[in-house]
Amino acid sequence: MYIVHGNIKTMAECDFTDGYIEIRDGKIAALGDMKNCPQTEGQVLDVQGGLVMPGIIEAHCHMGITEEKKGMEGDDCNENVNPITPYLRAIDAINPMDAAFNDALQAGITSAMIGPGSANVVGGQFAFVKTHGRCIDDMIVKAPAAMKVAFGENPKVNYSGQGVSPSTRMATAALLREELTKAQVYREKREKNREEKDFRYECWLPVLRGEIPLKAHVHRADDILTAVRIAKEFHLRMTLDHCSEGHLIVEELKEAGYPAIVGPDMASRNKIEVQNMAFKTVGLLAENGILTAVTTDHPVSMIQFLPICAGLAVKAGMSPEEGLRSITINAAKICGVDDRVGSLAPGKDADIAVFTENPMEVFARTLYTLIDGEIVYSAAGGDGAADARP
Asked: Where do the H-state alpha helices sit in 20-88?
């Protein structure tokens, strides 16, 4: 398959104002200027000047695990009876039939990091998945992809009325340290072949080995710095998710060196810890060399508005280039999947979105969404062969 006559923004080394992409076996085989396009064979998608870019990536959401319009029956986001649940796996609760997956495709969103919520100190394992399919096992790019931990209000609110810890920020930190210490002891015994496999702690090994990060729910500045303190104590990788008051501690975060997934800034300030959230935060962090992505935290704000959230961050001061990076290659790097997605380059998955114009513009329309080289959404309907002129 070939995509031809596209205004190609690769999010890599070079762009092409009139370019082509060759797709073979679900991967990008080649791309370049139209004057160098080889003799095309098979299906040809002429996008006639449409903006062609990597599929958009949502770096933190609960799509399919908190289903729309389903109430309790479709809400599998939080196991509210135990504050320490690292062994829970998002893949066992994500429902690809959730309408949000179709909304994502229509917005050019081709992959997402999905996992448990923040009611527990340790919530469980996130998975990075494609947004098209019926069987979650066939949609997985990386699982486990991160271990969810949470600081601040949510664990406090969830457990303070149950007469068990945590009811304070001190207890949240202490419970996490206790769990990590036990996991370290388990790892040492396992590596010395003195411990049989224990389901309760085996899930921590990828975290302790640095293969996947902690995914820390943090809004307030003091909670962000507590997460940093603990990650450094245990020598762990980590992403700072939400990071609502990150703009208040830019120098500290720059020194710490952890990436930030910022948002959902389109949501209401319905909690004390988000009183200072603002679209300017992600741009200020990016200006200071911190690797950043933008999130909707779906369903807190709707996943289809992810590119608009990036656009509002640009409106608040972020550079347009960095705005696009925050929902493509930066998100891929933070999620640990940039070897497969996030930019257009030979050998990468053919996850591609075609728009009438920059998707951060509110009037932009998605013309085509491709995942693994297959057209999974077409504004024209059918097989995507209709006129694609913007």
From this structure: none
Looking at 131-224, which runs of residues are DSSP E strands?
Answer: 140-150, 214-218
Summarised one tens digit per residue, pLDDT across range 367-376 is: 999 999 999 9
Contact call for residues 125 and 88 (beta carbons, < 8 A): yes
Residue the block writes with tokens 């921590």 = 204
**Residue 361 CB neighbours (<10 A):** 14
- How far is the C-alpha of 28 from the C-alpha of 110, rounded, in Å? 15
Q: Which residues pair with 368 in a beta bridge?
A: 354, 378
Mean residue pLDDT of the chain comes to 95
Segment 231-240 shows an average pLDDT of 98
Using the structure block, give the residue that is written with the tokens 């975060």: 253
| Cα 284 to Cα 246: distance, rounded to the nearest angstrom | 9
**259 prior amide bond cis, ω within 30:** no
CA-nearest of 341, 330, 346, 347 to 292 is: 330
Kindly list the distances between the CA atom of residue 76 and the CA atoms of 62, 112, 144, in Å, as whole numbers in the listed order.
9, 17, 17
Token code pair at residue 289: 């060399």
Q: Contact, 108 vs 355, CB < 8 A?
A: yes
| Closest to 95 (Cα-Cα) out of 124, 70, 119 | 70
Residue appearing with tokens 């820390």: 216
Bridge pairing between strands 56-61 and 109-114: parallel
User: pLDDT digit string (tens) for 171-213?
Assistant: 999 999 999 999 999 999 998 887 789 999 999 999 999 999 9
